[in-house]
Write a structure and sequence with these properties.
With 301 residues, this protein is α/β, with parallel strands linked by helices. It is built from eight helices and seven strands; from the N terminus they run αβββαβαβαααβαβα. α7 links the parallel β6 and β7. α4 runs parallel beside α5 and α4 packs across α6.
Length: 301
């Protein structure tokens, strides 16, 4: 589960993930537009990616080499990062907002991908699109469960942990301590001390907004009660987790009505978009997307 973890000795995969995060930030140019075109052009069905907890969709750049270039790919990104603005009161408002943006970008049928907390949001967006009468041709749930948000804390006493999470997610060393009197100030100091990395060009206001927006995202996700979505589902399960694939899929009982295909990926939850696992994920997603002007593709036997 994409959680707020206490510091531990980094693994080789964590070093690789930090390097990839930095590369993603450079490749995306730090753009925080609400709809980020990760790849445009092509006459295949577009893929819309919903952001994980951090609120930016740059991580989905890793999918591009593994999806047919006929498929445009777009990332949705959280409000409040690019500029100060009111944040959504609940996840249903977020879903309405992003459904508006998706419909304005490309016509349906719609293919949605969400990894981690982004999967919970993708489910809510699919529910909203179907409420409006739009077709959802595919919902990809990247190793998430309906109760995932409840494993994330938002209390004042763990603000330091949230700031460490932000640093780790953007490729910095997580060095904020539990007794730090100003965790957000320490976060800014760490970024300012590493010129040349992805966040170094961000103004202080934007850096300080990151923990606030993430904290708000957790809170609205915890209050959300998912409804029912009727569409084909691809469930991606990281196998190096405490929870079994069967338990993760079963947790969606009552919230999915349609064929559910499961692909297990040999990795930890946090590392699903590293090169080896993302190659398998991209192949699985691409095999189930609508080709040029046709019916949804089916995976080869």
């Amino acid at each position: 589960m994409e959680g707020l973890r206490a510091k531990a000795l980094p693994t080789a995969d964590e070093f690789a993930w930090a390097r990839q995060r930095r590369a993603d930030i450079r490749a995306a140019g730090g753009i925080l537009d609400l709809v980020l075109p990760l790849r445009e052009g092509g006459d295949g069905a577009p893929l819309f990616c919903l952001p994980p907890l951090v609120g930016a969709s740059w991580c989905y750049l890793a999918l591009l080499p593994h999806l047919d270039a006929a498929h445009p790919v777009y990332g949705l990104q959280s409000r409040g990062l690019r500029r100060p603005e009111p944040l959504p009161v609940d996840l249903a408002e977020t879903a309405r907002d992003w459904a508006d943006l998706i419909r304005a970008t490309r016509p349906g049928p719609y293919h949605l991908f969400g990894w981690s907390l982004g999967a919970n949001t993708a489910h809510a967006v699919a529910e909203e699109l179907q409420r409006r009468g739009d077709e959802v041709a595919l919902l990809v749930i990247g190793d998430a469960t309906p109760d995932l948000p409840h494993g994330l804390g938002v209390g004042d006493d763990n603000l330091w942990l949230l700031c460490d999470f932000v640093l780790r997610e953007f490729g910095y060393q997580p060095v904020v301590e539990p007794d730090d009197p100003d965790p957000v100030g320490r976060l800014v100091q760490v970024v300012r001390g590493r010129p040349g990395l992805g966040l170094s060009e961000w103004p202080d206001r934007r850096l300080r907004a990151l923990p606030r927006v993430i904290r708000h995202t957790i809170a609205v996700a915890q209050r959300h009660r998912p409804g029912l979505v009727r569409c084909p589902v691809l469930f991606l399960s990281a196998t190096r987790t405490r929870r079994s694939t069967e338990a993760k899929v079963a947790s969606w009982d009552g919230h999915l009505d349609g064929p559910v295909e499961v692909v297990e990926v040999d990795c930890e939850h946090e590392h699903m978009l590293l090169p080896r696992p993302v190659a398998a994920i991209g192949a699985a997603v691409g095999a189930r997307m609508t080709p040029r002007g046709g019916a949804p593709a089916r995976p080869k036997a």
